[in-house]
Amino acid sequence: MASRQAIGFIAPSLAGEFMTGVMEGILQSLRKHQYDLIAVQGAPQHLINNQLAKQHIKAWIVIIDPTGLNELATNMPAVVISAPNAGERFPLVMPDNNQSARAMVEHLIEHGHSKIAFVGNFNNSDMRDRYTVYCDVLNEHSITPNPAWVVDVGDYTEGRTEHAFYPLIANGLNFSAVVAANDQQAVGVMMALETKGYRVPHDMAVVGFDDATIAQHANPPLTTVRQQPQLLGSIAADTVIELIAGKPVSNAPIYVPTIPIWRQSCGCKDVYTGIKTSTVAPKQQHWADQLAQRMQQVIYYPVPIDPNLSLNESNQGIRSLIQALQAKVEAQNVEVDYLAAWYAIITVSSKSDTLSVLYQVFATAANQQLAQIDLPADQINGFLATAHTSLLHTVLELQRNEITGLDRLLAANHELSMLLVSNQKQQTGKLAWMQRLPVSIACLALWDEQKPGFLRLASIYSKDGSSTIKAGSHCHGSEFPPAEFLEQARQLNSSGYVACVPIVTASHDWGILAFGHADVQKTIADINSLYIWASILGSSLEHEALESTLDAEREVLRGAVDREHALSKTILELGCPLIPLLPGVLLIPLIGSINTERAQQITETVLNGINEQQASRVLLDITGVSMVDTHVASSLMQIARAAMLLGAKVALVGVRPDIAQSIVSLGINLNTLVTYPNLRTAIQQMAMV
Length: 689
Known about the structure:
Layout: E1 6-11, H1 17-33, E2 36-41, H2 44-50, E3 57-63, H3 69-72, E4 78-81, E5 92-95, H4 97-110, E6 116-120, H5 125-140, E7 150-152, H6 158-165, E8 177-180, H7 183-195, E9 205-207, H8 213-217, E10 224-226, H9 229-244, E11 254-256, E12 259-261, H10 287-300, H11 316-329, H12 338-346, H13 352-372, H14 377-421, E13 441-447, E14 454-462, E15 474-476, H15 483-492, E16 497-504, E17 509-516, H16 520-525, H17 527-574, E18 579-582, E19 585-591, H18 596-613, E20 617-624, H19 630-645, E21 649-653, H20 657-665, E22 674-676, H21 679-688
Parallel strand pairs: 1-2, 1-3, 2-16, 3-4, 4-5, 5-11, 6-7, 6-8, 8-9, 19-20, 20-21, 21-22
Antiparallel strand pairs: 10-12, 13-14, 13-17, 14-15, 16-17, 18-19
C-alpha cells in the first residue's frame, strides 16, 4: 500500500461557508504537491493528549485558535491563519482587516452617519481587529465611540446576534448605523430590526463582512466586504510546503486583499462590486485571449492574472463561452454545452453580482465582435439570449439541487433522530443512516477505556461496500485515520481528503467520526450537516450508554428487591417464634417494630399456640421492641382479649423504664395486662404460683 504524508488542518469548527472556502484553497495547493489533507475540528491543545493523526502529519495549518500549537508542533512546521497571538515562530496569513473595515466605516460616515454601533465576537482576533479600526476611524472624524453601542455576541450566528441586539433597540433607536463583524451577525441585526418594525436602510443602515452567500439574498442585499477564504487557504498551504522543503519564509504577516461590495443595506441605490477589469495582455494578442483575461479577472478578482494568460489556459467554462463566440464570428457550426460552461464558472464564484459583471463583459465583447461581421441584431440578441438563459438555468438547477439535497439531509436527520429516541441499541453506531448522505466512506472510532490512547473502529461505512477495514479492530490515536482508510480516500480523489469531527458531549469524549467523498467540494459543502449529525450521534451514544447503565442498575435493584423479599420472609418466620416455656406456659419473644401486618402475625401465632399447646398463660416478651406507641399498645390489647376468649391470660415481659414512661405519657391503659420487668421475674412468679 502506498504511503503518503498529510498536512493537518485544525479549526474550531469545520462548518460554515468561510471555513469550507479555506479548505478548498488548501486542497488546491496540496493537490499539486501530492499531500493528503486531514482536517480536524478542535484546537491544537485537544490533540496533544490523544495524539490524533500524529503519525500521518508532516505539518500543521491552524486557523483562529492556536492554543497548544507550540507543544503540538514542537518538531514540525506550522502556519497559522487569522491567529496573530500564535507567536513569531509561525508564519501568519490574514485577511486585510484594516483597509476593508476602514472602508466600511468611512462609507457610512459619507452617507451622513455619525452615531454608529458595532456588533462582533471579541473571541475572534479578526473581529477584534475590525473593532479597533472602527474606533480609529470614528476618532479620526472627531466622533467618540460609544461603548453602550458595542455588542459582544460571543458567537457568529444570526440567532444569537438577533437576541443580543434587542436590548440596544428596546427603547428606540439612539444610533443610525451598525457595523457588523461578519455577515451572519449583520443579518441577525436586520432580523431584530425587522421584528421591532424598523426598516433597513431607511431607519438603520447595516454593513457586514465576508460576503457570504447570505449577504446577496438578504432583504435588502447586504453591503459587505468580500473575503477570499480560498486564497487564505492556498497561501497558507503554499507557505507550509515551503517550510517542509526547508526554504526561508518571512516572519512578516501575509495580508490577503479584500474588496468592499456596496449594496442597498447601507443606503446605496445601486450595487457596486468594485471589480475592475483591464486588458493587461499585449495589444497584438488575439481578442479571444484578451477576453479570456478580462473574464478571468472578474471571477478571481482581486487576485492578479498572468498577463500572458491565453484562452487555452483560462477557466474551462470561460474557454467554452469564448469558443462559442469564436464559432459564431467565424460562421462555424459548433455545439457548445452552455450549462456545463456556466457550471465550471460557478464552481469558482457563485456570487450573483460577480456573474452579472462576468456576463456584461462577455456580452459587450460579443456585441463588438459580431457587429464587425455585420451579423443582424436579432441573431446577436438570439446568441446572447442563449448564453444568458443558460446562465439562469444553471443557477436555478444548482438551487434545485440544493433543495433536493436539503430534503435528503432532512430524511437522514429524521432517520438518525428516530434511532436516537428508539430502543434499538447500537444501531446509530453502525452508520447505516449515512446511505442517505453524499458520503463515500466513513469510520466511527470510539475511545477504548480498557486500552487508553486506542480507538476501537466501531463501524466502517462504504457506499459501494468495498472497504476492507474490519469493524471492531483497534487503532492508536496517532495512527487514526487508519492507513487503509486514507488510501481509500485517495482512490476516491487524488487529494486524499478526510475530515475528522470529534464526537463529544457535555459529559464525555466518545471518539471521532471520519469521512470522505469522491467529490471533495461536495464533501466540504456537507460538513455543516455532518457537524450537526456528529452532535446527534454523540447524544445517541450517550443515550445508549445511559440505557446500558440503567439496565445494569435495574438488575442490581431487581436483585436487591429479591433479597429484601427473602429477608422479609425470614424475618416474618423468625420474628414471632413460639417457645413452650413451662407446662401450659408459652413464651413469644418480639423483636423490632410492630406494624399492622406483624400484629396480625403475632395474633395468629398466639391463638394457634394456645389451641395447639392447651396453654393457659402467654408471655409476650417486648424486651426487643424498640418503641411502644398507641398503635402497638392497641395491638397488644387486642391479642390479650383474643387469648382470653380461648381461656388464656397474656402477660407482658420486659417493660423497660423508657417504655413505661412512654405508655404513661401517651395515656395508654394496660390495666388488664399483667406486666413483668424481665423474663426471670416472670418465671419466678409463675413458679411460686
